[in-house]
Amino acid sequence: MTRRSVYGAALITFLAASALTLTSIILPQWISWDASSNVGPPVHVSYGLHKRCSSLDGSCHHFPSDAECHGDERYFCSMWRSVGFLMSFAIVIEGMTLIAFLVMITGGKQKREGGWGVMGALLVLGGVVQGIGMSLIAYLHNNDPRFYPGFHLSTSFVLCTASWVTLGLTAVGIIASRFLLEEEGGYELIPNEQG
Q: Is-contact 116 175, C-beta < 8 A?
């Protein structure tokens, strides 16, 4: 297996992880609450990084709103908005990683053999940033009084987890290839003509 094929396979898994990251940001389903009703349809409330959706009125609203970010709620708003920033920052890091992948794959042998450190660092950084954002959501879920029993970590949380785990495993694969694969297309020594 050549380094080019390792980077190609890593690019495919990286693109899958990036799609998971983007989907987790877009879907307003980080924390959800579902309740069945004997009288009417079931009730579903979900919180995304930038929207709160409810089946009661069938719409989504900006979240957290400026009105919700005063007094005692400032702490919650700062934490929630920090997660939004971290996830957006993760997308920027993933964009840089995509460019690095393209340079490694289309570049020469030296770039592929020397680029493992940069690629590994970018992948790990993207995963760590997402992991921090995910842990802040888990902390708020467990400690903020607005999320009473019945609220659960939802689809976007799972997608984010799958994304940063995939990024980490991809980094491990690239770093391992540096130590386990032979040099690609190396030069052979010319036999000594002295005799």
A: yes
Are the C-beta atoms of residues 86 and 135 closer than 8 Å to each other?
A: no
Whether the Cβ atoms of residue 100 and residue 122 lie closer than 8 Å to each other = yes
Q: Which amino acid is at 45?
A: V
- List the strands of the sheet with 43-47, edge to edge: 59-62, 51-54, 43-47, 31-35, 151-153
CA 26 to chain centre: 12
State how far the Cα of 148 lies from the Cα of 151, in Å rounded to an integer.
Answer: 6
CB distance 65 to 52 below 8 Å:
no
Q: Is the previous residue joined to 191 through a cis bond, with omega within 30 degrees of 0?
A: no
Q: What is the pLDDT of residues 155-183, one digit of tens each?
A: 999 999 999 999 999 999 999 988 888 77
Handedness of CA 161, 162, 165, 170 (dihedral sign): negative
Determine contact, residues 177/116, Cβ cutoff 8 Å.
yes
Q: What is the largest CA-CA distance in the chain?
A: 99
Q: Angle at CA 167, nearest 5°, toward 111 and 185?
A: 25
Residue 3: its pLDDT value, please? Answer: 75
pLDDT digits (tens, 9 = 90+) for 68-86: 888 887 899 999 999 999 9
The arithmetic mean of pLDDT across residues 44-61, rounded, is: 94
Residue 133 CA to residue 123 CA, distance in Å, equals 16
Task: Give the Cα-Cα-Cα angle 76, 80, 81 (nearest 5 degrees).
Answer: 115
